[in-house]
Write a structure and sequence with these properties.
- With 123 residues, the protein is an alpha+beta fold.
- It has helices spanning 65-73, 85-89, 95-101, 106-121; strands spanning 2-3, 11-13, 18-25, 32-33, 47-49, 53-59.
- It has 2 domains: 2-59, no CATH class; 65-121, no CATH class.
- 30% of the residues lie in helices and 20% in strands.
- Strand 2 (11-13) and strand 3 form a beta hairpin.
- The model has no long low-confidence stretch (mean pLDDT 79).
- One of its GO terms (biological process) is maintenance of mitotic sister chromatid cohesion.
């Protein structure tokens, strides 16, 4: 899944890792062609395109600042009734919402939530 807001760099997130994406231009000619028919004795191919570069993936540190910002904006109280008026006025996040908006893998987001939850309970 590729994630990132217009003001952020794009990242590729797998289930367990996050990769920053960087376009790297190439000075060598590269041709993308259709797979040939192996039973044919012909050695011709149709060129689909000539790319000017490729995307390099680099294992990146998880970007959890946005997660902490979201959680600070919507503090919750475990004793609070989630149907109350005060709760309805605030934006509450489901874990799936956070995974979609944070530039980190699902496992990294869940790990950070568990870590923050332990810190909160120990205060």
């Amino acid at each position: 899944m590729i994630r990132g807001e217009p003001d952020e760099g794009a990242v590729l997130c797998t289930r367990s890792s996050t990769y920053s994406m960087k376009f790297v231009g190439t000075s060598n000619s590269v041709f993308l062609i259709r797979p040939g028919d192996s039973s044919s004795s012909s050695v011709t191919a149709s060129i689909l395109t000539v790319p000017t570069g490729n995307i390099e993936l680099i294992l990146a540190a998880k970007k959890l600042d946005k997660l902490k910002k979201h959680l600070k904006e919507t503090p919750s109280n475990p004793e609070e009734d989630f149907d109350s008026i005060s709760t309805q006025k605030r934006r509450l996040f489901r874990c799936e919402d956070l995974v979609e908006t944070i530039q980190a893998s699902e496992e990294e987001v869940r790990g950070a939530l568990n870590s923050l939850s332990r810190k909160w309970r120990n205060q």
